[in-house]
């Protein structure tokens, strides 16, 4: 057999009638589509034109390729892609039209596929092709199908029971359509070879006898929102070779059955989120093999178990768990989303060994005491014989990779955690609403130089705001409000380059680390599943922060005991959108150059001891929609003009 790759011209002189396979995938033919000689190669059995940005319809001569067995036109941009002349292509085994804008009713698409080939057609891929239609009844004529993918289209109507007669079917992808109705055991009766199934994002209801024994043994089972509940589907327990299981949002009620953990001990991705599952989790899941585990938004109680060494992404947020097992460990964990539980006690010291951890969200829990001081403990464990151990050395030899640490709304009560000295990669730190006390250390600016978001709001921090905080070049959200900071606002704010609007901060880096990178990395790739099913895993708070990063630049120092004048330099923060210095003891004048804060939408200087005249420059703030200068000693006229007239 001849197989052909570039360069084409080398082959054109040769006798093309012997050519059986042409693979021109991933090139950039613009119109006029494909080289004309191609349609005269009558002996062709396999033609791959995937991903070529083809944009005109295929010529009628395509129908001359009557020996064609494999035709792949996926990932082009051709409307009305299938010519009506294919009626003699009786040998077609595999047809891939996915990721095109076919824009037809599905019965019309099937009619274009030569009826002499129906009985032999094994692979039909119409994923993401803008196909409509209300019936899939035609499948009863495609008896040899092994792979049937119509996901991500606009199909409606029921799934015909005849689909259960496709005994050779291994891949069934119906996800992301508007299919309706009930699927019963009968729909699966003959599918003894089925390995991959995706019914996600439809309006389907799976009504199946709990004690049914399926004829198949699945690898990938995607059943989110399929109304499987209220009882946990017992029939799943026979699916021991499952690698990917998603039964989120199925109205499941009651305890997770014991067999769940053993039947799926080899699974890599498990998602049982958004149900009403209750009861304690097992204390030890080390014998399992999953990479991602999502149990978000259930009614689970008990402790956070010892996890398998393989776990990378864990989401048990929005449950009622109350602590960590004493020997908690998860060496590969990168994303731990545990917010809104009732977790009390201290964060386990084993966190110091989690060298891969990137995102830790423990907001809205009952955690107290101190964070572990990894700098003190960890090296001793590693090198117990060393008695000649300087702290400075410790610092440089050991650090964590955490980028996002969210601890808001707990009961931590220490000084600013030394733990953070081990976190030089931090981008987002939220300690809001705890009982942290004492002064902020100068090393904030040095150690956490990449911080984009720093929220220390509603604690009991005191002392001066350290000058070093101005070394946070990338900071965009600085919220120190509602503490007991005293002294003057530091000068040199110019160093906060992101806030000056000179745009050195790199959105795509922060965006990627906070969120996006995890999507592609751990998505069950090649399984025909939609990205969205994974997105759910780390949505919630992290996603909200992502939005802030892109749009909000703010400084909030309100409700402290700050004294002195508002530094003139503040007016160099041309990117600032919101500035709140309310409820302090600030005196002096409002800086004359305040009009330089061109991006400002909200300015709150109320409840201070500011005096003098209100600077005319305020009227230059064209985006200003909130201004509060009340409860000061300001005098003179309120400036007029521009934006101020509209307030
Ligand atoms: C090729 O197709 C054209 C038009 O569809 C037809 O006229 C011609 O006879 C075909 N040639 C062969 C060799 O099948
Ligand atoms: C699908 O086809 C409709 C026309 O029926 C068109 O308006 C729409 O843009 C197409 N959608 C995509 C995603 O190509
Ligand atoms: C197959 O299609 C041809 C032309 O489209 C039609 O004439 C013929 O009746 C069909 N055969 C069957 C068995 O449906
Ligand atoms: C199956 O094929 C036969 C013969 O071409 C046709 O009459 C029938 O309508 C087809 N059934 C469906 C559901 O398309
Ligand atoms: C199913 O596949 C087997 C083995 O490839 C084949 O022998 C059989 O004919 C196929 N069955 C159908 C209904 O196509
Ligand atoms: C703080 O956490 C508790 C416990 O999870 C929760 O009930 C409460 O709503 C949270 N408060 C805020 C303001 O989020
Ligand atoms: C301590 O460490 C330093 C530098 O590593 C070394 O020069 C010195 O000899 C060590 N002292 C002892 C007592 O081990
Ligand atoms: C805040 O810290 C001070 C000492 O810095 C302490 O006296 C005070 O009790 C603390 N307040 C609260 C509410 O914890
Ligand atoms: C604020 O700090 C001062 C010392 O700077 C202290 O006297 C005062 O008690 C603190 N206030 C609160 C509410 O903790
Ligand atoms: C931001 O970072 C991305 C990824 O590292 C890089 O491709 C891009 O060029 C950077 N942009 C700027 C403005 O530095
Ligand atoms: C998932 O998202 C990535 C990037 O956004 C995209 O390249 C990829 O094709 C998507 N995969 C699926 C199955 O939709
Ligand atoms: C400024 O902070 C004070 C106290 O924290 C708050 O009451 C006020 O709403 C804030 N102003 C704006 C515009 O957010």
UniProtKB/TrEMBL annotation:
What's the main place this protein lives? membrane
Q: Quote the subcellular location field of this record.
A: Cell membrane
Family annotation (InterPro entries): Leu-rich_rpt, Leu-rich_rpt_typical-subtyp, LRR_dom_sf
Q: Which PROSITE patterns match?
A: LRR
Q: Name one Pfam family in it.
A: LRR_8
SUPFAM superfamilies membership: L domain-like (SSF52058), RNI-like (SSF52047)
Q: Which keywords describe this protein according to UniProt?
A: Cell membrane, Glycoprotein, Leucine-rich repeat, Membrane, Receptor, Repeat, Signal, Transmembrane, Transmembrane helix
Any one GO cellular component localisation term in the record: plasma membrane
What does UniProt give as the signal peptide span? 1-19
- Give the membrane topology, semicolon-separated if more than one: Single-pass type I membrane protein
PANTHER family per UniProt: LRR RECEPTOR-LIKE SERINE_THREONINE-PROTEIN KINASE FLS2, UNNAMED PRODUCT
The family line of this record is: Belongs to the RLP family.
Q: What is this protein called?
A: Uncharacterized protein
What lineage does the source organism belong to? Eukaryota, Viridiplantae, Streptophyta, Embryophyta, Tracheophyta
């Amino acid at each position: 057999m001849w197989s052909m790759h570039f360069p084409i011209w080398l082959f054109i002189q040769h006798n093309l009638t012997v050519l059986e396979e042409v693979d021109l995938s991933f090139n950039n033919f613009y119109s006029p589509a494909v080289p004309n000689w191609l349609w005269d190669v009558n002996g062709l059995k396999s033609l791959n034109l995937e991903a070529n940005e083809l944009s005109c319809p295929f010529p009628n001569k395509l129908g001359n390729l009557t020996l064609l067995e494999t035709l792949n036109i996926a990932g082009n941009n051709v409307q009305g892609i299938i010519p009506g002349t294919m009626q003699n292509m009786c040998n077609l085994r595999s047809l891939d039209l996915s990721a095109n804008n076919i824009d037809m009713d599905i019965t019309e698409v099937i009619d274009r596929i030569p009826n002499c080939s129906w009985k032999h057609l094994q692979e039909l891929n119409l994923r993401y092709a803008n196909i409509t239609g209300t019936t899939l009844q035609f499948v009863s004529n495609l008896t040899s199908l092994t792979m049937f993918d119509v996901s991500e289209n606009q199909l409606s109507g029921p799934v015909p029971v005849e689909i259960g007669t496709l005994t050779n079917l291994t891949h069934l992808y119906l996800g992301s359509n508007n299919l309706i109705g009930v699927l019963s055991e009968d729909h699966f009766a003959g599918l003894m070879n089925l390995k991959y199934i995706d019914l996600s994002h439809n309006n389907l209801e799976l009504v199946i006898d709990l004690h049914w024994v399926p004829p198949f043994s699945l690898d990938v089972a995607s059943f989110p929102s399929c109304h499987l509940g209220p009882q946990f589907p017992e029939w799943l327990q026979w699916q021991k070779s499952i690698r990917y299981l998603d039964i989120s949002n199925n109205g499941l009620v009651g305890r997770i059955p014991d067999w769940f953990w053993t039947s799926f001990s080899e699974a890599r991705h498990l998602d049982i989120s958004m149900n009403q599952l209750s009861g304690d989790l097992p204390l030890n899941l080390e014998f399992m093999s999953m990479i991602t585990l999502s149990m978000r938004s259930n009614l689970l109680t008990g402790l956070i178990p010892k996890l398998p060494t393989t776990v990378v992404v864990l989401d048990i947020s929005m449950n009622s768990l109350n602590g960590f097992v004493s020997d908690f460990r998860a060496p590969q964990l990168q994303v731990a989303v545990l917010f809104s539980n009732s977790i009390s006690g201290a964060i386990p010291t084993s966190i110091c060994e989690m060298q891969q951890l990137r995102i830790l969200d423990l907001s809205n829990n009952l955690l107290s005491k101190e964070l572990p001081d990894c700098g003190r403990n960890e090296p001793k464990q590693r090198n117990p014989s060393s008695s000649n151990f300087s702290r400075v050395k410790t610092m440089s030899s050991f650090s964590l990779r955490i980028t996002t640490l969210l601890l808001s709304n707990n009961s931590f009560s220490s000084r600013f955690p030394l733990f953070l000295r081990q976190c030089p990669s931090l981008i987002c730190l939220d300690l809001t609403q705890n009982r942290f006390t004492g002064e902020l250390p100068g090393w904030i600016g040095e150690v956490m130089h990449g911080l984009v978001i720093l929220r220390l709001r509603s604690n009991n921090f005191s002392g001066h705001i350290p000058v070093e905080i101005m070394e946070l070049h990338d900071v965009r959200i600085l919220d120190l409000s509602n503490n007991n900071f005293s002294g003057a606002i530091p000068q040199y704010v110019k160093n906060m380059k992101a806030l000056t609007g000179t745009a050195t901060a790199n959105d795509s880096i922060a965006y990627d680390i906070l969120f996006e990178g995890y999507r592609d990395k751990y998505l069950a790739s090649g399984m025909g599943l939609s990205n969205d099913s994974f997105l759910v895993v780390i949505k919630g708070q992290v996603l909200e922060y992502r939005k802030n990063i892109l749009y909000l630049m703010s400084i909030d120092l309100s409700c402290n005991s700050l004294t002195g004048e508002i530094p003139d330099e503040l007016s160099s923060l041309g990117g600032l959108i919101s500035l709140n210095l309310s409820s302090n003891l600030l005196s002096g004048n409002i800086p004359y150059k305040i009009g330089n804060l061109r991006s400002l939408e909200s300015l709150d200087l109320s409840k201070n001891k500011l005096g003098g005249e209100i600077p005319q420059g305020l009227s230059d703030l064209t985006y200003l929609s909130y201004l509060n200068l009340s409860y000061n000693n300001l005098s003179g006229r309120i400036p007029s003009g521009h934006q101020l007239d509209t307030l």
